[in-house]
């Protein structure tokens, strides 16, 4: 569901009008700002790790082909994608056949001082504003030169900049409800409360579906180790 579809759904409920403003109209511009506020709210909702926001370095190169994703002899620092937020697990090195040939466990930057210079590890430094950098130890040798490296990471969501942009969230109608609520609040419309309730119900339902298990919130399996057959 792209922004144009979201805006049409929003405007039809807001104005009850079949004529929807075009991208050159002020209401369209305001609508996009409201939609991006909704995306930001969703991304930070209740410290939830959304499944839709997990990706990999190699997949991100489809969006940013200029991003360096191959190792260079003697180079230990590599810039992360601009949407990088948090990595988990390890960094893996892949040969031309797609076989993993090297693995670097990810540690906290503060742990590096306790590691030896020859030990295999990596860590990330930076911030959401300034960007992140991957640091690999030890320095890649010539036998790793030119090989691809990859890692799973949690990204910031995509914001709308054009009408054809799409959001990652499972149910984009949350954006519609949230846009209505924020518009009603700005205009002191008494329907603000009902629109806000609709949006909260939608995001909570998404959260329930989402929390079936991921690396930040693994599923809980009942402990039946003390049970007996037929008891």
Any key phrases for this structure?
18% strand, elongated, 5 helices, 231 residues, 3-stranded antiparallel beta sheet
Descriptive account of the structure:
The protein contains five helices and nine strands, in the order ααβαββββββββαα. It has 231 residues and is α+β, with helices and mostly antiparallel strands. It has a domain at 52-155. The strands form three sheets. Strands 1-9-3 form a three-stranded antiparallel beta sheet. It has a three-stranded antiparallel beta sheet with strand order 2-7-6, with no helix packed on it. The termini are far apart.
Put the structure in a nutshell:
The chain has 231 residues and is of the alpha+beta class. It has five helices and nine strands; from the N terminus they run ααβαββββββββαα.
Please render the helix and strand layout as text:
Blueprint: H1 3-15, H2 26-43, E1 54-56, H3 57-60, E2 77-79, E3 84-87, E4 90-94, E5 100-105, E6 121-127, E7 131-137, E8 148-150, E9 152-155, H4 173-186, H5 192-210
Antiparallel strand pairs: 1-9, 2-7, 3-9, 4-5, 4-8, 6-7
Helix pairs in contact: 1-2, 1-4, 2-4, 4-5
Helix content: 25-40%
Structural class computed from helices and strand pairing: alpha+beta
Main sheet overview: 3 strands, antiparallel
Termini separation (Å)? 51 Å
**Spatial sequence of strands, sheet with the most strands:** 1-9-3
C-alpha Rg (nearest Å): 23 Å
Strand proportion = 15-25%
Mean pLDDT: 91
Q: Choose one word for the global shape.
A: elongated
């Amino acid at each position: 569901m792209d922004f144009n579809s979201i805006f049409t759904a929003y405007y039809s409920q807001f104005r009850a009008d079949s004529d929807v403003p075009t991208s050159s109209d002020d209401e369209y511009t305001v609508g996009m700002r409201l939609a991006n506020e909704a995306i930001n709210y969703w991304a930070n909702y209740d410290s939830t790790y959304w499944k839709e926001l997990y990706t990999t370095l190699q997949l991100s190169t489809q969006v940013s082909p200029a991003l360096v994703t191959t190792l260079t002899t003697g180079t230990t620092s590599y810039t992360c994608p601009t949407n990088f937020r948090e990595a988990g697990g390890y960094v893996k090195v892949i040969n031309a056949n797609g076989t993993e040939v090297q693995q670097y466990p990810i540690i906290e930057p503060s742990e590096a001082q306790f590691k030896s210079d020859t030990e295999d590890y990596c860590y990330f430094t930076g911030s959401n504003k300034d960007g992140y950098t991957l640091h690999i130890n030890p320095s890649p040798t010539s036998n790793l030169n030119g090989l691809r490296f990859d890692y799973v990471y949690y990204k910031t969501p995509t914001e709308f900049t054009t009408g054809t942009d799409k959001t990652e969230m499972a149910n984009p109608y949350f954006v519609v409800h949230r846009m209505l609520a924020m518009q009603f609040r700005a205009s002191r419309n008494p329907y603000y409360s009902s629109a806000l309730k609709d949006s909260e119900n939608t995001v909570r339902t998404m959260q329930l579906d989402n929390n079936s298990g991921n690396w930040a919130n693994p599923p809980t399996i009942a402990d039946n180790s003390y049970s007996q057959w037929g008891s």
